[in-house]
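Feature request, filed as a ticket because there's no other form

It would be nice if the structure record came with a short human-readable summary line next to the tokens. Right now we just get the raw output. Example of a typical job, pasted below so the devs can see what we mean:
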Amino acid sequence: MAQNFRLRFDASGVEQELRQAAARGLYLGAEHVLGVSNDRVPLDEGTLQHSGTASVDEADLTAMVSYDTPYAVRQHEELDFQHAPGREAKYLETSLNAERGVVLALVAAELRRALR
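Raw output as currently delivered:
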């Protein structure tokens, strides 16, 4: 005697949970990159370092790390500027490139938590 079963799966809740988890992971990753970048950012009075922020656009699942001073871009791009030991131009770019694996691991960990 054969029995028939019907299963309905509504994935809309899962999708929302995964999106929120990905956004949390991206934020943690952006905060991590900001911390590493703050250790490399040119330092005089600390204004540039203290202007750094991390944020996430959950709709686009895009993370941002930014510094908000009039000279942030110039300090980042000018390779000829002299900096204190351990401080450098390209402070944000090199931090992101160096920490890419950590960021991916943070996002993956948040997604795994959401799937439990």
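Something like this underneath would help us a lot:
The beta strands are 52-57, 62-67.
Helices lie at 12-38, 47-50, 72-77, 91-114.
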